[in-house]
């Protein structure tokens, strides 16, 4: 029966929505003292979804078997791969938050609920097989994210971040929606595969407009240049665990969604969007690299770093091939590990009173205060700079390889040149930590969860990570291949 | 164990040692050095065991599949040449370990040093043993990273930190260039496997991408091998501990670039462009390095520039593109590694035992450290190219090749002269190094009293100098076979005949050698004394690579910050503007590329009245936008006008149902907004000094209006183009056809709402209920700020009037405020309610329905509240909104579930017509019951929100905040 098959395909989403509702009720009755318990329950729910999705990714499911609700929803390996990363990012956001939020007096029972709702939205986004599904997922995620950004209500920076994110995000959503309606108007369908069939014969001017406006809306969500301006403000203003969340999971979701729109719906017209993506990629890499140089706040720096990384991810997308999509997925995977690790390390920088430190100068001489923390952060920075033996090198490698194989040599060259500038500020952080006089500010103790997450992410990006690359690369490739299956 | 497995072991050993050393206690100097030395020895021994295999001309390969789909395998490859190079890396590495044991002081965390050193050794071995292009880059970058850590090992030293940073940035730059170059090479050759690539030289050289690929790879190699103009990082890396310099700048780090050029020589070399670039760069480096070396006062600085010069020499040889040049390059690489390592170590001993490396302070050390002096002299002689030493042999080959060069360019005749000149410089600085340090009067003012170094510290130098001698005297018996297999592995069938004999008879190269030697000695005699006084290298002293580098870096940072300040903003308004403008620009590009055409569909006949209506609506919308900032009430009123014109448009375009609903929704939302308005802080009127709005503000506002108008017109134009094209086949036809037969209603919209898509409606009314509850719970504890519930000015005036008269009581006038409208509104209440019921009942067939009815009923309640005031309404009327909501939801759900009882899916409808006296035909569909649910929910919802708002007026305001320093007012307008 069609309905049952569909329901079984959306099992992770069902689990997520039911657990969000249940946790909301528990929170409503139990009050904020249930917050920690709710967080754990949320982690378990997401881990459960992880367990549901993982086998499907390993099996490389794709094609008609993975289509639910008459093509509206696709539970193929591509979405599965993205979902695994999203779930990992969400669990990290749930784990690192309680300590931070309790300290600023803002740990509420709603936090895990909002994270789950955002996760649900992302889960739907990456599985979208239809413009409407896309929009539902995107908005569900965005609305939860707006609230999360402003979660520490007593902090004016957080409130400002939430407001900015909301106003700009709403405008971007509007543009996206306009693009979607144009696409529908000129192609006569909202289904990705059907759009792809219609535009295969040639892209009409109107559909081109639709595509452009949709790209604008999605570029905002992945904070690609020139729609990146909100990123540093929101990243700086939002509570750090929320920033870590923003920088990891939603990026994955938005990029995967963009890939779906570009490669699935408009995959037969690669030339129509390639220039836009190439421009956004280069601009993001350059602006991300240059913007980071002058920053004094680590969160702002990481914001620019994420813009920079999005550029590299877009290089993979610009290739427009299955290889490019696979390289994009791999880059995302490494990126999530690096981002989570960096933000956890940032959360562990506390002064003697236990207050958070965010300034780069506070890092100076960290090596002599906390060698392990400094070493882990150094690994993150070198990995972000793409220096072997850390895994970041591999991520950059696969992306560039895809670009070169797609004959985008100039793009690869310019991206490389900018990545050298990018390396500069990562190295600067290492220099501050290792070579500068200890400022003696970082003194606070961190708890086990933070340490565990930091060590795990460091291990992932360490040379040990290369042991998994063979298997992981294969997985990503099969996942990317499902994007190109017509179903 | 198979050969391939052994090879893995050779590569893995240094890394294992590195990890082990990292875990040793900080003071375990002996344990760490012993382990490191042992690892070097074992690895060298293992490597030596490959000799017999390689001597037969075979290549050992080990391939482990890694990413077969990307064409990436983990490949280890050992050929004669790489074997020789690996041996150099391991052999000199082992000697450096021994030397470092005595060089490093006990206070230093020595195990960490060895950990880095071993990791570096492993990375270098990785570069040498890799059989895959990407893998080479991987290890290549690792050598950059670990050399950074080694150079910056003494991190308390400012110059060490700077040197490490410069080295890392320059070599990383080269590394990424190399990465792209290698990707391109692999792309061209169709494989990343080195052996495959080596076999496709012809294809590669003929490819269109050959030039970019070549340049990128060369940048990689040149940065690493400190070739002009990237040579500046090397002298700064001299702040490293001397064992590091001895290792990195003799056999390993800087030789990596040379190694790569030799390795890829069969593929890349032989074109005109290769010749031009590589020879020119090599020659420039050779001369610049040799010239600068003469004027250095730091022992290690002199050696550093001499290294640069020798690297330039090797590059030049490779650039010539002749097989004999390659032989000479390989030979000189080995020789240079031997004598330069020993010279660095000797310099380290001098530094260690005297406390200084300044040539101007050193003098007459021969008496204090005779053995070291002798060793250094032999090594320096090898560097200068004195006969019977290894340096002489390779230099002879170089001079011979310089003479042979046949490219047909100016370089042909310049090369021999410049080569002789560079050799002369080389003799000159070698003599200076020796003479200044070891001869002359005894030194004065040295930080330490000089004495001979411990025997074990000298041993590495002794071994290396012995090698220089042995190779120099009996080359064919020692280096001969090794060189032969190395050359053969690179050149294969093209291996030329060459002779390693010391004596070739009287010929040009010999003459040039003699000129260089004699010239060098004469120059030193003539100018040697004056060199100590010079502070700068003449002619090229101004070419400060580092200063350029720092300037470029500073310019980059400043430029980046300036650019960043220019294009980034924290202000929301600007961000919004950019978002719109970029979108507009993207759309405009689309317009320009695709043009604009209206479809064939029916275009709207523009009626003048309709146009006026729209102009009115549009003007109100613009007015609302303008006034939103200054006068919210006016803005709200204009929003109402815009909404109203939309309603009329709906009715005009024959959509009465939509028009009705829009009208009702418009009214209720407007009133609710109006009620909320009073809690917003009052806007202060705009005030500019001089009473005039400044020009820049007007300009900005004008620009914003233009942007807004352009964006609006653009969106409208695109939408119009879309709507005049044939509509996509939607589902509306289905609904139109089925509404009556399937749903029993002629109001298709209503049938859709309560029948076809009633599940959606059920969801929507649930959401509506939740929204109302949320608003209520948000406002339940909300108490307005004191200033926002202050009595309006008019009321205050009236009250003052009342208070001033004897015959009136306070509030009398206010009590009769709006008396007539109030009475009318109270009378209207039952009429509007009846109307609402009418809408509800007729909804299935005619415009109306549960939603419209519900909103109408809410308007009745709303009017009552507005007219009579909260207290008076609630004294007489008990609305229980929550009950309305729950009853409505229950109704809707139960109606839907009733279908189950009849065996139909959820929410299926039953319908028929009931004939009632007086009223006539009355449609009785189960959908009506559902619609009643909708009605009830809508009424309850609106009433709940209304009550939540209304109750604010009877609440005591929040106590005013205690006076405190005014917070910074957020700058919402921004750049005014």
Automatic annotation (TrEMBL), chain A:
Highest taxon in the source lineage:
Bacteria
Record flagged with keyword DNA-binding: no
Q: Where are the transmembrane segments?
A: 6-27, 39-57, 77-97, 109-128, 134-153, 165-186, 198-220, 241-263, 275-294, 301-322, 328-349, 369-394, 406-427, 448-468
> Which GO MF term does the entry hold, naming one?
NADH dehydrogenase (quinone) (non-electrogenic) activity
**GO CC entries:** endomembrane system; plasma membrane
Looking at the record, the residues that make up the NADH:quinone oxidoreductase/Mrp antiporter transmembrane domain are 128-421
Instruction: Give the Enzyme Commission number.
Output: 7.1.1.-
Localisation per UniProt entry: Cell membrane; Endomembrane system; Membrane
Alphabetized, the UniProt keywords read: Cell membrane, Membrane, NAD, Oxidoreductase, Quinone, Translocase, Transmembrane, Transmembrane helix, Transport, Ubiquinone
Query: What is the membrane topology noted in the UniProt record heading this document?
Result: Multi-pass membrane protein
Please cite one Gene Ontology biological process associated with this protein.
ATP synthesis coupled electron transport
**Subunit structure, as described in the record:** NDH-1 is composed of 14 different subunits. Subunits NuoA, H, J, K, L, M, N constitute the membrane sector of the complex.
In the record, the note on similarity to other proteins reads: Belongs to the complex I subunit 2 family.
What is the documented function of this protein?
NDH-1 shuttles electrons from NADH, via FMN and iron-sulfur (Fe-S) centers, to quinones in the respiratory chain. The immediate electron acceptor for the enzyme in this species is believed to be ubiquinone. Couples the redox reaction to proton translocation (for every two electrons transferred, four hydrogen ions are translocated across the cytoplasmic membrane), and thus conserves the redox energy in a proton gradient.
UniProt name for this protein: NADH-quinone oxidoreductase subunit N
The species this protein belongs to is Croceibacterium xixiisoli
Q: Which gene encodes it?
A: nuoN
Automatic annotation (TrEMBL), chain B:
Q: Which UniProt keywords apply?
A: Antiport, Cell membrane, Ion transport, Membrane, Transmembrane, Transmembrane helix, Transport
Taxonomic superkingdom? Bacteria
Regions of compositional bias (Basic and acidic residues) in chain numbering: 960-976
Na+/H+ antiporter MnhB subunit-related protein domain: which residues?
Answer: 821-943
Query: Annotated Gene Ontology MF terms?
Result: antiporter activity
Pfam families, alphabetically?
MbhD (PF13244), MbhE (PF20501), MnhB (PF04039), Proton_antipo_M (PF00361), Proton_antipo_N (PF00662)
Which residue intervals define the domain MrpA C-terminal/MbhD in the entry? 620-682
GO BP of this protein: monoatomic ion transport
Provide GO CC annotations from the record. plasma membrane
Q: Which residues form the NADH-Ubiquinone oxidoreductase (complex I) chain 5 N-terminal domain?
A: 69-114
* Location(s), subcellular: Cell membrane; Membrane
Q: Where do the segments described as Disordered lie?
A: 957-976
Q: Name the predominant localization.
A: membrane
Its name, as the record gives it, is Monovalent cation/H+ antiporter subunit A
Per the UniProt record, the source organism is Croceibacterium xixiisoli
